[in-house]
Amino acid sequence: VGGRDRVIQGFGPPMVRENRDNEAQEQIDNQLPRQEPSVRQPKDEGNEMNLAKPRFIVDPNDPIYKKGDTTQAGEGGKAVKVDKNALSPEEKQKYDKGFQNNAFNQYASDMISIHRTLPSNIDQECKTEKYHDDLPDTSVIVCFHNEAWSVLLRTVHSVLERTPDKLLNEIVLVDDFSDMEHTKSPLEEYMSQFPKVKILRMEKREGLIRARLRGAAVAKGKVLTYLDSHCECMEGWIEPLLDRIKRDPTTVVCPVIDVIDDNTFEYHYSKAYFTNVGGFDWSLQFNWHGIPERDRKSRSRAIDPVRSPTMAGGLFSIDRAYFEKLGTYDPGFDIWGGENLELSFKIWMCGGTLEIVPCSHVGHVFRKRSPYKWRTGVNVLKRNSIRLAEVWLDEYKQYYYERINNQLGDFGDISERKKLRENLQCKSFKWYLDNIFPELFVPGESIAKGEIRNPATDKCVDSAVGEDIENKPVGPYPCHGQGGNQYWMFSKDGEIRRDESCVDYAGQEVMIFPCHGMKGNQEWRYSPDTSRLQHTVSQKCLEMSKDGAKLLMSPCDASNQFQKWRFKEYNQE
Ligand code: LR7
Ligand code: MN
């Protein structure tokens, strides 16, 4: 594969970059406290081919290149707090621009060394863990689209500096058609100092999945390790991962993903005791869960690897041959999303194991929005998810389709992927749910589902749910018939729920709260005859305000048309 790949190595003299005549870029450069070069003039200065005056990328005064200064901002993984209001107008502009371009605080990152140290409060037990002394080596593959310079470099240096030389075969950087200037020749020139770092360039924007496949196609290591382009690996991160693969190459492993704050770049080390595992919901979104009871019991120590139904997607190690055997990723997946669940389901259903390894830690900058362009005119995430559902979910795909109102649209050809599943003789999705993720709430077990409509006003119960939006009031909204935030399930236990979020009434407003399974404030009664939704504890009924603007809880009244609710689908027992 990939005669068109350019693996760039040993390119030009290190630390020199050509001048650019781009005015806008020039202006930005002028704001940066960079110095003109004082050492190492390139040999070919004055050469016709190089009329412009070259500059150095590495300015010794630039804080990001400093090493070993323990008093510097962000050392030890500490927070860097920037008081924006104290900045000069130009600096303020830079600060805002950094956030705009990256959806994280680039300004703060630019104050932190790319070699910074990380917290030392690691789990005591991990310090004495012993690993196989003949571990396989790994290629570390990092795909990026327009990653910030200091952040990308910090990712690479954390790998270079914290991976034993004999375990690191190479670092493959796959540039998914970035257009930021620093991702071009400056990156090549900088990385040419490090023979293990290779750069591949996609020739058009492909998205992270096909970029990863391109990386895998050239990788030489026995194991492939994927990282996002805004990560920091902790000391000792790789050995625990490779050790699991050495024992069994069908074990796919994820580190604990520590949070690097998107604003302060603080590194939050997560102790083994708090290790979470991955799950998903019926809108096919990944989410985190505590370790289920049965696995807690079977493990003797908090640092023991733990089975995980799914992976977050970005950070994991897999035996290269095993990845190929599993058919890597669906190359029809565009831009972002879906590939994490595809691989997770496939691993379990086709005979492998997926684990999180509590002694391996890598930080990741979690951000609140996606800073780069996706495709226009097509919902790529939905399209990816449909491809995934078609191939791997069997009859359960219907639960996802209900969420998107059965509007599948064109999802392309999936025959190759179906063939793959057949050839691998994988188990059913039902087997996966019964054995690997029995905790998941399956909509088929609910009494009613779909929108909850008040016919008098044609408004529906509506709310976004999810981890960061709990305690959000539930409101009425004109019924849109698209599923989404108006899709509810009425469970056998009387919950009005979507995945793990329940409609909850504690005497004030009707709210969304994580389902606790203990009835109480989350128990409702519904009868299709009266069409009323009555809250068991308070005995009150759900009511639409007269102006249709609010949801109220009122004494039940059989004649009140604002207390009548219709589920789209009600299954008579
Ligand atoms: O078109 C693109 N091309 C790319 O190369 C879009 C993105 N990318 C790169 C990007 O530069 C980044 O390095 O792909 C990587 C992931 O994109 P992010 O960081 O914008 O998104 P994310 O961190 O939310 O992505 C999570 O979900 C993705 C679904 O496709 C991938 O699986 C990511 O790897 C995954 N990240 C993690 O698992 C880190 C932990 C987050 C959690 C939970
Ligand atoms: Mn990411």
UniProtKB/TrEMBL annotation:
Give GO cellular component annotations, separated by semicolons. Golgi membrane
Point out the signal peptide segment.
none
Q: Where is the Ricin B lectin domain?
A: 446-568
- Keywords of this protein's UniProt record, alphabetized? Disulfide bond, Glycoprotein, Glycosyltransferase, Golgi apparatus, Lectin, Manganese, Membrane, Metal-binding, Signal-anchor, Transferase, Transmembrane, Transmembrane helix
Q: Write down a Pfam family by its short name.
A: Glycos_transf_2
EC number(s) per entry: 2.4.1.-
Task: Provide a Gene Ontology MF annotation, just one.
Answer: carbohydrate binding
- Metal-binding recorded as keyword: yes
The yes or no answer to whether the keyword Transmembrane helix is present is yes
Enumerate the residue ranges of region (Disordered).
Answer: 5-49
What's the cofactor?
Mn(2+)
Q: How does it sit in the membrane?
A: Single-pass type II membrane protein
One Gene Ontology BP term is:
protein O-linked glycosylation
Task: Name the catalysed reactions.
Answer: L-threonyl-[protein] + UDP-N-acetyl-alpha-D-galactosamine = a 3-O-[N-acetyl-alpha-D-galactosaminyl]-L-threonyl-[protein] + UDP + H(+); L-seryl-[protein] + UDP-N-acetyl-alpha-D-galactosamine = a 3-O-[N-acetyl-alpha-D-galactosaminyl]-L-seryl-[protein] + UDP + H(+)
- Chief place where the protein resides: Golgi
Q: Kindly list the places in or outside the cell where this protein is found, as annotated in its UniProt entry.
A: Golgi apparatus membrane
What protein family is recorded?
A: Belongs to the glycosyltransferase 2 family. GalNAc-T subfamily.
Name under which the protein is recorded: Polypeptide N-acetylgalactosaminyltransferase
